[in-house]
Design goal:
- The protein is α+β, with helices and mostly antiparallel strands.
- It has 2 domains: 126 residues, no CATH class; 68 residues, no CATH class.
- Helix content is 35%, strand content 22%.
- The protein is built from 6 helices and 12 strands.
- The strands form 5 sheets. A 4-stranded antiparallel β-sheet has the order 6-11-10-9, with no helix packed on it. A two-stranded antiparallel ribbon has the order 1-2.
- Strand 10 and strand 11 form a beta hairpin.
- Helix 1 runs antiparallel to helix 5 and helix 1 packs across helix 6.
Length: 210
Amino acid sequence: MSLQVQLALRGRLAEEVRRRGTLFGRAVAAAVNQRARQLQRAMRADVERALGARLARAVRRRGFPARGRGEDAAAHPEAAAIVWSGARLGRGQPDPMRAAPIDLLAVWSQPQTIRARGGTALAIPTAAVPRVGSGAAQRPARPGELGIALEYRPTRTGAGMLVGRDGVVYYVLVRQVRHPARLRLPQIIARYTRDLAPVVEREFARRLGR
């Protein structure tokens, strides 16, 4: 004696399962692209704060599947998005899959240590140093641009200082300088790439309630 059981979805039940599957795919796509837009806006705001609007526009976004490929693209359950930096040194296409040697935004997202070459020192200008140049190119004058005699004086800490005949300290000499990270991109990326499930659930519930 054998027992055979056959199950099949028919009529309105099968239609409802297909409808919900389509809605879920659209919810996933909407959630992924919503987070990608939020991430791009947050990254651009951070870059503009620290480095200016021009570099901020280098934060780009692309969705997969690409829009404009019909209804199937909107309902794709494996939708994805990528946000990347186009601020790269080197020639080539600004393609996120083809990285150039140096990503400037990645560099400014990490603390940087600048060291003097050989037995030299870095001259850090004080507030007494006048600025040269104009507009965005304005900067503190270098020791050779001051037009005055500077005297080296050793210090207990660091490499010493350069002092004018008037006794004013114009430059502090150090072996190295450590700059903190100017961008908070790693923290921003971590914030917007976690806990995507609640966003999918909200988008799915919103579509079911229509």
